[in-house]
Write a structure and sequence with these properties.
The chain is mostly helical. It contains 13 helices and three strands. It folds into three domains: about 80 residues; about 110 residues, hpI Integrase, Chain A, CATH 1.10.443; about 60 residues, no CATH class. Helices cover about 60% and strands about 5% of the residues. α3 packs antiparallel against α4 and α5 crosses α9.
Length: about 300
């Protein structure tokens, strides 16, 4: 591991010990460090940071630069030779992508398309991951990080996000989901290293890039790939949240009282993040408006 790589590991461990989740930083910064290592650069400069942030993609440059800036501040405290990109160098876009809300039929189409992938291991794993995301609303990174030991095969409870610094959260799943995971575990190749739940074609832990490539192929084979915006794997999380709340409304449940439970299940820090997931669902907004109409109409 390079000196920058070692410093990054220390930085992430320190920030997480202080209570920060650093999910985006943990995705972004290893790529930045790998870029500097490949160039033989041991010191962060503003020019290198800006060039790299724009090299990855034209979208999200400001967010990537923000992650680099926080890391660079840490490095500069250890060695003043490191440069810290100034705030506002590239504005951070405030808008969020409008999610595609997958229906139950959409999810069935995705899983059917996954079964047609080759080789068979890719088909098995992609279908299993898509199915788990659809019925739990997990983040893709959380699902791919699961080990066999994270699944309590007797009770049907999955421990998500467990690490040395966090006990993670507990996600109960339906018996049918547990059966599907057991079927997958028995059908897939035995892991070559450790005990990851989801494996790639060579038996190692499935990585995000491999899954993203397979998922893109699944989308391309479905009609879902067409439309004003391309559906994303993260939209399965949005869809789960919306479907859950829709079910509560239709059952006449006290949604306001139940929403904190959904936030905890999804791993949100509070209901505010969950509310945004729900705001993009026209059907849900229509039900809410219908519920409010008798109250509002009384004053007319």
């Amino acid at each position: 591991m390079s000196a920058l790589g070692s410093a990054l590991a220390d930085y992430l461990a320190l920030r997480r010990a202080l209570g920060y989740k650093l999910e985006e930083a943990a995705r972004v910064l290893p790529r930045f460090v790998a870029h500097l290592d490949a160039a033989g650069t041991e010191t962060v400069t503003i020019a290198d940071a800006l060039a790299w942030a724009g090299l990855v993609s034209t979208a999200g440059v400001g967010r990537r630069l923000q992650a680099v800036r926080c890391f660079a501040r840490y490095l500069q405290a250890l060695d003043p030779a490191h440069e810290v990109p100034p705030p506002g160098l590239v504005p951070i876009a405030k808008h969020r992508a409008v999610p595609h809300l997958y229906s139950a039929a959409d999810v069935a189409s995705l899983m059917a398309a996954a079964r047609a992938l080759t080789p068979p291991v890719r088909a098995l794993t992609t279908e299993a991951v898509v199915g788990l995301l659809a019925v739990t609303g997990m983040r893709i990174g959380e699902a791919l990080a699961l080990d066999e030991a994270d699944v309590d095969w007797a009770t049907g409870v999955i421990t998500v996000g467990a690490s040395k610094l966090s006990r993670g959260r507990h996600v109960p799943v339906a018996p049918s989901t547990l059966v599907a995971l057991e079927d997958y575990r028995h059908a897939r190749p035995r892991p070559v290293l450790g005990a990851p739940l989801f494996v790639h074609t060579r038996g190692g832990r499935l990585g995000y890039s491999s899954f993203a490539l397979a998922f893109a192929g699944v989308l391309d084979s479905c009609a879902l790939a067409s439309g004003p915006s391309r559906p994303r794997v993260h939209d399965l999380r949005h869809s789960f949240a919306v479907a859950t709340v829709l079910g509560w409304y239709r059952a006449g449940a006290d949604v306001h009282a139940l929403l904190p439970r959904l936030s905890a299940y999804l791993g949100h820090t509070g209901p505010a993040s969950t509310y945004w997931y729900l705001s993009a669902a026209p059907e849900l907004m229509a039900i809410v408006a219908e519920r409010l109409e008798p109250t509002n109409g009384g004053g007319r």
